[in-house]
Specification:
This protein is 47% helix and 5% strand. By secondary structure, it is mainly alpha-helical. The radius of gyration is 20 Å and the shape is elongated.
Amino acid sequence: MANQETYSGRSAPVRQPRDLWRALTKGWLGRCPHCGSGKLFGGFLKSVHSCESCGEEMHHHRADDLPPYLVIFVVGHIVVAGYLLAEPYLDWNSWQHLALWVPITLAMGLAMMQPVKGAVIGLQWANYMHGFGGQEDDAVEIFGGK
């Protein structure tokens, strides 16, 4: 059992560690976290089925709600901080603040969504999550889903 580790009474194969920061960076740039040359997205937020360069399958990733949550968290903090810093120095009406902060919020959110989703896919790939390790997830195995 040299190539096995035991987790909660079950043995699992020992896997080679993958470089997390490289995978995050490649995903952020919209590239395959495995080879770094193939495109990660076929549309704005639609990931490719598999990498055109190395063939790594991407269809089983589960980025789901984490990228929007992270974008809302970061953009919200930046915009609210900007508003709170500007308010004492600017004698603006509410509509003037809305005219500034709403477009900034939308632009930042749209600009960050694809890179953040790519980084989340890279995170999953680097940690062998959600099918990137060649096995089904435990939840799928336990609950009998596909």
